[in-house]
Amino acid sequence: MADEAKVLEAVEVARTTGKIRKGANETTKAIEKGNAKLVVYAADVNPKEVVMHLPLLCKEKNIPCVEISKKEDLGAAAGLPVATAAVAVVKEGDAKGAIEELAKEII
Question: What is the DSSP code (8-state) at residue 47?
Answer without folding.
Answer: S
